[in-house]
What does this fold into?
Amino acid sequence: MIKPIQLLFPSLKLRRSVFSLYAISLFFCFSSSSTLANTNDTQQPVEITANKLVSNEKLGVSEYQGDVQITQGSFKLTGNKVKISHPDNQLENIFATGKPATFKQFNAQENAWINGQADEIFYNAAKNTVKLTGNAAVQQENKHQIKGNSLIYDMTLQTLQGSGSEKQRIEVILQPNQTTNSGSKSNE
It folds into this structure.
C-alpha cells in the first residue's frame, strides 16, 4: 500500500528537497526580525573572562581556556575553549568548543532571547555567519526550535541551513501561535 506522504513526494530525494525548503522557509518566519548581532550590541565593548589566556598579538590569535565567557551587549558566547583570530586588531573569526558551547542574544524587536548550542560554534565575521556543529540546536524563546548535526545561520540574509546524520536527523519543533484573548473566560 502506498502511504499518503509517498503520493505527495514520490522520491526520497524530492522529499528531502521539499523538507529543506520547508525548514528554510520556517526559519525565515522564525527569525524574520531577529539577528544574532543586534546593532546596539556591536557598538558595545567586548568583555572576555576565562581561566587561562595565551595571546600572540603578532599573529593576531588569542586562545582562552576554562569557563570562557564572551559578552558584547546582550550577546553572550560560552565554551570550554575559545580561539579568536584578530589580525591587525580586526575580528576575523571565533571558534568555541564545549559540552556544549552556547550563545544567546536578546532580540528587542521580538522581546525574546535566541539561544543556541553545539559541541562547536564557529563565527565568521567576513561572511557574518554562525556554524554550529555536533548536537546543534537553535531556539527562539517561546517559539520554534531546530536541531541537527550541523546548522549554519547567515545573519545578513537571516537564513538557516541544516544537515543531519544517521544518528541525528534534522528535528523541527513548531510551537503554535500563542494568542491571548483577554475578553474571553472559560467556564470550568
Q: What stands out?
A: Residues 1-37, 182-188 have pLDDT under 50 and may be disordered. The chain is about 15% helix and 50% strand. The two ends are 45 Å apart (CA to CA). The CA atoms of residues 47 and 71 lie 5 Å apart.
